[in-house]
Amino acid sequence: MMPAALPLPSGITLEVLLGELRRLSWGAADILLAYGRGEQPPYGFPRALSVDEGGEGPVSAADLAVNRWLLDGLAAAFPAADWTVLSEETAKEQLTDGQPLATEWLWILDPLDGTKDFLQGTGEYAVHLALVHRGEPVLGVVLLPVMEELWLGVMPALTGASGEAWCENRAGVRSPVRFSGRHALGELVLVASRNHRDARLEQLLEALALGDTKAIGSVGGKVATILRGETDLYISLSGKSAPKDWDMAAPEAVLRAAGGAFSHADGRPLAYNSGDVRQAGCLIASHGTAHGALCARAAATMATIDPGFVV
């Protein structure tokens, strides 16, 4: 027998919450697309100033505009909600090292994940929104503005049944998750970063002896390739310089709601609002079928490559 669904704060229904998240997400897409094209953004946000004009350029303007759009939108839609909202743009003011935020419910937002791709015009950037309950993401939104894809994932805690994940376009037409049928390690396709690779990762990938590799920006964009069946796994390997909570929370929620897996190589779950926003170690996201074997081989390999490294 499945446990009862976890009630959302202040009597908010899941249907109403998802409706507002759709509205905010497509509004964020319009803002980012306008900045990316050098056009006047909607909703009264200022045109991006160039560095030559004394501004900080389109990335700062886009980040700040989407951040304000999301914060104001959540506050206006749910003024009495008993939750805290943490954004990459507000983290320095909100966080104290070693101290989790004192809240049961926490939104973790990344207004623009994939800044380099935004600058380079690849289109491989995303917006992340994740609702976390006591350190575990229970709802995730990954918006890919250029591809006009809105990925949503709702974990079993909020449904009282199995997890649900799907993709929507602007018209609200849904597409299902389509994991690939690849299972053997030697045929799995890795999705990797263009900008964050080092010698240890190359050694690990050589030892795993996977199939093909595809390079994509943004963690949300990487996980979307797994959800479409284009790739099968993503590995993040880092220490002091590591992805942060806002990079991982939303993609993890969508992937796990779809039946995939996202964990440390030793099987530990990712923890959020722990007092340290860094998601360090060897993190593996996959379609789930070969996750145990991937983790076991990765952990054993890292013990040889970098003894003492905490995976």
Short description:
The protein has helices at 14-37, 57-77, 91-94, 115-120, 156-159, 199-208, 219-228, 245-257, 291-305; strands at 84-87, 105-113, 126-133, 136-144, 149-154, 164-168, 174-176, 190-192, 213-215, 233-238, 261-264, 281-286. The chain is α+β, with helices and mostly antiparallel strands and 311 residues long. It has 2 domains: 9-176, Fructose-1,6-Bisphosphatase, Chain A, domain 1 (2-Layer Sandwich), CATH 3.30.540.10; 185-305, D-Maltodextrin-Binding Protein, domain 2.
Layout of secondary structure:
Elements: H1 14-37, H2 57-77, E1 84-87, H3 91-94, E2 105-113, H4 115-120, E3 126-133, E4 136-144, E5 149-154, H5 156-159, E6 164-168, E7 174-176, E8 190-192, H6 199-208, E9 213-215, H7 219-228, E10 233-238, H8 245-257, E11 261-264, E12 281-286, H9 291-305
Helix pairs in contact: 1-2, 6-9, 7-8
List keywords for this structure.
9 helices, seven-stranded mixed beta sheet, globular, D-Maltodextrin-Binding Protein, domain 2, three-stranded antiparallel beta sheet, alpha+beta, 311 residues, Fructose-1,6-Bisphosphatase, Chain A, domain 1, 2 domains
What features would you describe in this structure?
α1 packs antiparallel against α2, α6 (199-208) packs across α9 (291-305) and α7 (219-228) packs parallel to α8 (245-257). The protein is α+β, with helices and mostly antiparallel strands. It has nine helices and twelve strands. It starts with 13 loop residues before the first helix and ends in a 6-residue tail after the last helix. The radius of gyration is 19 Å and the shape is globular. The strands form three sheets. It has a seven-stranded mixed sheet with strand order 1-2-3-4-5-6-7, with helices on both faces. Strands 10-12-11 form a three-stranded antiparallel sheet, sandwiched between helices. β3 and β4 (136-144) form a beta hairpin. It has two domains: 9-176, Fructose-1,6-Bisphosphatase, Chain A, domain 1 (2-Layer Sandwich), CATH 3.30.540.10; 185-305, 3-Layer(aba) Sandwich (D-Maltodextrin-Binding Protein, domain 2), CATH 3.40.190.80. It has helices at residues 14-37, 57-77, 91-94, 115-120, 156-159, 199-208, 219-228, 245-257, 291-305; strands spanning 84-87, 105-113, 126-133, 136-144, 149-154, 164-168, 174-176, 190-192, 213-215, 233-238, 261-264, 281-286.
